[in-house]
Specification:
This protein has 155 residues and is mainly α. It is built from nine helices and no strands.
């Protein structure tokens, strides 16, 4: 119980799981891996978009503790995007591109573009949004490719 209080963040739970696994203590490793996922899920269910994105990454890649699951990855990225996390919407587009679903990819990229646009309109000094908008306008995902003055006009 004391260790549970010490391990307040999901990251520490994952580190402990890996440390136990490296030392051959597999029951403890599995226990901490389960706690890690439970902690991330609880934070994500509470609205923490970073935890949603971390869960999506875990399910997309899979690892020694989590089985790869593209549906779960898409679920968590979509929830994070619904909560206004532009990077999650962009990653969702990348996931759909990898899976070969051009229509869903285009929708996700367009969603990311709208979120970045909204964030930049609210704060013209938001460098991440400005960079992302410029990149998306040059590369084309989420908007028509534009090498013209649009990015320069944003500054």
């Amino acid at each position: 119980v004391l260790l549970d209080k010490f391990v307040a963040a999901p990251v520490e739970g994952r580190q402990l799981a890996r440390r136990y696994a490296l030392n051959g203590l597999l029951p403890q490793a599995d226990s901490w891996a389960t706690r890690h996922i439970e902690m991330l899920t609880a934070k994500a269910d509470g609205g923490d978009t970073r935890s949603m994105t971390l869960l999506a990454a875990l399910y997309w890649r899979g690892d020694e503790f989590v089985e790869q699951n593209a549906e779960q990855a898409a679920h968590w990225l979509s929830r994070a995007a619904d909560a206004g996390e532009a990077s999650a919407a962009y990653l969702l587009g990348a996931q759909y591109t990898t899976l070969g679903d051009a229509q869903k990819a285009a929708e996700a990229y367009a969603r990311a573009y709208r979120i970045y646009r909204s964030r930049f309109a609210a704060d013209p000094k938001d460098a991440v949004s400005l960079y992302s908008l410029g990149y998306m306008e040059q590369a084309g995902p989420g908007t028509e490719q534009n090498f013209g003055p649009t990015v320069a006009e944003l500054a």
